[in-house]
UniProtKB/TrEMBL annotation:
Protein known as: UPF0125 protein ENI96_13825
Species in which this protein is naturally found: Sedimenticola thiotaurini
InterPro entries reported in the protein's UniProt record: Mopterin_synth/thiamin_S_b, RnfH, RnfH_sf
Family to which the UniProt record says this protein belongs: Belongs to the UPF0125 (RnfH) family.
Pfam families: Ub-RnfH (PF03658)
Amino acid sequence: MHSANARARCTVVDELIDVEVAYAKPEEQALIPLRVAPGTTLEQAILQSGVLERFPEIDLAVNRVGIFGKVAKKDTVLNPGDRVEIYRPLIADPKEARKKRAAEGKQMRKGGGRQPAKGDAGS
């Protein structure tokens, strides 16, 4: 016979929600599946995941966080299936990086990387 206590424990476990905590560096990525209680906040999930111990460079006072690519506050309550993301600080100005990529792309295309198709002049 099951006690009321055992039934209560089962109910709590059944009510846990599945979320993921993600952090990526250029050379290493982590996607940590986690079961948390309803009402768990983004920050609580990060703390429970162990990601801070695995990546000591993460500073929640500095690093921005979000859910599915959208910046969110640390006190945001999670929904089932949410992917919590910890973002690294930018190392380059996005405008400058775009300009650099565009310039490199133009230089690469100047060499005429296109092969003439059959029937084109010169074939």
